Amino acid sequence: RLPKLERAWCDAAYWMRESLFDSIDGLAVTKLETALEVLVCTESSKYSTARLMLALQNFLDLQPDDQMLPPFALTTKQFVTRLVRDRSRILHGTWSTLNARLAIRRDGLEAVVGAVMRQAVVQLDAYAQEEAPEDDIDAFLSWLKRRSAAGAPSAGQ
Question: What are residue 74's phi and psi, to 5 degrees?
Answer without folding.
Answer: -135, 155
